[in-house]
Amino acid sequence: MKDLKYILAYIIPFSGWIALENKGIWSWATVILAFGIIPILDAIIPASEKNVPVEVEESRSKKVFFDVLLFICAPICLFLTYYYLYTVQTKVLSTSELVGLTLSIGIVLGATGINVAHELGHRTDQVSQLFAKAGLLFVLYQHFFIEHNRGHHKNVSTMADPATARKNEMVYVFLFRSIMGQYLDAWKLENDRLKRENKAIWSWNNEMIRFSIYEMLYLLVVGLLFGFALVPFAVAIAFVGVMLLEIINYIEHYGLQRKILPSGRPERVLPKHSWNSDHEMGRILLFELTRHSDHHYKSTRKYQILRHLDDSLQLPLGYPGSMLLSLIPPLWFAIINKRIVGNNELNNTIE
């Protein structure tokens, strides 16, 4: 029965559906849930450091139930994207309703789309990777599949990683640097792969070219189905989803840097190189993304067996609360910088 707790993750897309169905003040349902109700629940419900027993990890990692929960997410994002565009096209909406619906569906695309695509993108089977790329299509961020797996996990907590926030770097500066850096890095990584395989860079073999074409075709389909005046709205919900991802990127590795060894290479990724959160609601609703230290320590571990590690740095709030805190840089620096020093990480911070 405990496994059924992850069904609660569907509260986020369900709130998006509620927003589209009822409109009015309900247009803001997902915003209120994600950044109002969940942070309060995270503060009330005690964080749990309990791990899955080692002896059941293997059997638990093979349960199809946990995979099915992920595979459903891309179709849900497709449905809600269609419903959102249909609503904007056919209904007379106030400015408040339009903004609320755009933010609500964008949050769904980030939490249910990108987050699940991130989990599936680490798997090697073609079905999982297909669903991962599908989940990233609706946010126009398919290059994340390349850069995250081949770039971020290799370079995390080093100056070479655009998705690692530097100490005292404001989130607003980080967003621009991370988005641009990851996109350019994805092109470089794919070009380098093709060179190693002696394949032409400007060809269908280049996945970045394929992703670019898929995303343009997606927007073309939106224009043909709903009218080209609706294309900016498809871009708007994608933008919100990407902002959600990148603010999470900001809090996940803020101020942490791996030591450079005498060989010139960084030390291996350790639990102390990621910020972790054991707050229950965030863990469940984001499919354990918040146990990020173990994810980077061993990226092949499926979400249902990710562990609390004693060496990991702990965020004072759950992910939604930490995201809100990061939007007030002076307050974020005052609270988080002390935790870096307190964990003897001062020499590992990116200044």
Write the layout of secondary structure elements.
Blueprint (H helix, E strand, L loop, with lengths): L10 H12 L6 H16 L9 H8 L2 H8 L1 H18 L4 H27 L4 H12 L6 H12 L15 H26 L10 H20 L4 H23 L21 E2 L3 H6 L6 H6 L15 E2 L4 H8 L2 H14 L9
Parallel strand pairs: 1-2
Main beta-sheet annotation: 2 strands, parallel
What spatial order of strands do you see in the largest sheet?
1-2
What spatial form do the alpha-carbon principal axes imply? globular
Low-confidence stretches: 342-349
Q: Gyration radius, to the nearest Å?
A: 20 Å
CA(first)-CA(last) distance: 47 Å
Average pLDDT level: 95
Query: What's the SSE pattern?
Result: HHHHHHHHHHHEHHEHH
Share in helix? 55-70%
What is the number of helices?
15
Strand content: under 5%
Tell me how many strands there are: 2
How would you classify the helix and strand content by structural class?
Answer: mainly alpha
